[in-house]
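Model it.
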Amino acid sequence: MVREHYRITSPFTHHSLFMDLFLYFRARNWPVVAGYALFISMMAIGYFYNVTFVQLGLKDLGERVLGLPATAVTQQMALLALLTSLVALAVGFGMQRRGWSTHFLRKLQLALLVVVVQTGLTAVAPHVASQTQFLLWIIVCSLALGVGVPATFSLTVDLIPVRDRGYAAAAITAVAYFAAAAFPGSWQIEPFSRLMLLIMVPGVLALAVLVGLGSSGRTFVAVWLAELAQNHKRPQFGHGRFLRGGSGRIDRRFLGFVGLIFAIFFVDSLGFLRIVDTPILVDGAWQAVTQTPRLIIAVTHVIAALVAGVLYSYLNERHLFYWIFGLFALTHLSYTFRVWLLPQTTVAALGTPMLYATAVSLYTVVNFALWADLSTPQTVSRNTAVGVAFSGWAATFLSTALAIQWQTRGVPLDEHLRLVQALALLFLLGMLLLAIRPLKWGVKP
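Modeled.
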């Protein structure tokens, strides 16, 4: 029996300081409540895996463990970005054509396949012993990540109501970044692998049980999953808040969002990869010997993510981009100014890393929630593949490759940061220009 959902006039006209989640609690609609927990836990673990094990661990594996030249690691990271993006696009468009965008159980099955492969890759990564094995690892990882992007992000329309997507994205961001900042004491492949296996093995077992029971059709889990599979048909879930015309098509407006997020991920990773390779910038912060500085940064991530969730829920998309990404550019500019103007003995102060953590949390929340809110249930797999794979993955790992290449060529730290700061400032000026003369999104402001 399908449980009755609470009724509101429109998902956008009912404003409250409370999440819709609390209404589901009061109604004892446990399938939807469990759906929140499932989505947030899956996405938080996945993002933690990507920003630690993949982005930092693979760099360590290639350079320190295998002794590969930085140029070779650059090529492998670029290959990872390209293959992941291509596979995600192929799978996303394929899911839309086959009708899997609205097939909840099929998406869970794909997600299970992905995490099984990723768990195996995580276990064998420290034992990779040659460049050929490293290349093979990269290819298999790209295939898994490419399938995972549209399969997991498209679950948004099944599990998270439109009004709560900013809050859910905030929870994902807070959990992932808190863990990334607080727990890994050493950015090396071996401790990364051990930590991830402690998290992923129980997660794989739990998801396997869920999918197995859900596929049997004779358990309460199957009944719950059947209820969740109907959510995308309900207005609280199905119609993204930034849709125009209800089609969820890829148009100039959508591509404009893709370009904006690509720029911000590219600039961020281009600077951060050089920062983490500079001891005076990380020894008192992300790589501090004591736990306290790391906890301060972790808590900053949490607070910033919660603020970003509120902003996302109550601002329209234009003002959201003005404030969120304008703040990012200002923060990055502040970081580079501090590096240039203060002596090296004071660079490791926590103020600037906390500002950096704030900006990163803000735009990460937007990336997690935006693409489903530009989609219909029928187009969500395609749109998340285009948005997340191109804007997030391609930008992050192409800029990672470029940062490694600049460092290999002997580009000094101050020049590297000056180039990143110039890009950030150019982006900020572009945002200010749009604030003065708004971009034509195809609709009236």
